[in-house]
User: Fold this.
Amino acid sequence: MASVLVASALLLSGCGLPEDDEPQSLSAEDVPFDLLDPATTTIPQDSEGFALAEVTLYLVEDGLLVPVETTIQGFAEPEAALDTLLEGPENLNLGPALTTAIPADTEVGELQEESGVLTVDLSEEFQTVEGERSILATAQVVCTATDLDEIDGVRFRIEGEDITVNDAEGVEQDRPVRCADFRALSEPSGG
Assistant:
């Protein structure tokens, strides 16, 4: 057994790795495996160390949907994006031209994502608007959610009960809705 250990030690000592008495400098060409590239997993943070994410919120201007890129505290996840959307444009300091069709005091409840479909449970305040304003409010939620990775469509619940919503044409949809269902709301009339 001792002869095996001695043979192993001799083999390992002859592997060609020199021993240095002190650290040595390497040229950039000698650094292996792209170790000089900056890390790509750094998460942007605010001055208090909270994670920041870029998201696109859909607001309303002159009766049309307007995508607005903004930075939110947290990660680009549906709950953070929708909470920020429901806070309203006045909290984002975006100017008086941008508004929301989503009723004040609407809150996001439980969110469930399955196979690219996000089920959004909202408080009953969401149903206090009707007609075109209701369609705009729905479009704001759908387009904000589907702009996030992994979300292709949205279903709605109010206080835990499944509901159907109307698309831009006022047609009731019993399937998950997509931002494309509201494309007419992002184009000026006659254009």
Q: What stands out?
A: DSSP finds three helices and eight strands in the chain.
